Amino acid sequence: MSESPVIERQAEQHRYVAFLDGEPIAFAAYRDAGENRVFTTTVTNPAHGGRGYAGLLVEAAFKDALDEERTIVPQCSYVEHYLRTHPEWEQAFEERGLLGAS
Fold this sequence. Notes:
Blueprint: E1 6-10, E2 15-20, E3 23-33, E4 36-44, H1 53-67, E5 71-74, H2 77-85, H3 87-95
Parallel strand pairs: 4-5
Antiparallel strand pairs: 1-2, 2-3, 3-4
């Protein structure tokens, strides 16, 4: 990754957005349902794909969910894939009983 984006949580819009030079390049959308945080969509601008930006969004969202003790429900295929390929996150949520079924 050549540049580090700024990750912003836009709680009113239920999303995390990555910005480079003030321009949005990726977002991860979610909805809260009770104690669950349901991840519905993750999108990266194709011009910025393959650089790990979506992963940074998901990590920021996961940190917040853990802090808020919310159960993760991955309905988004990217979030499901990220959990499978980053077992440290899956383990962190499982240890606290915060991993839900998609």
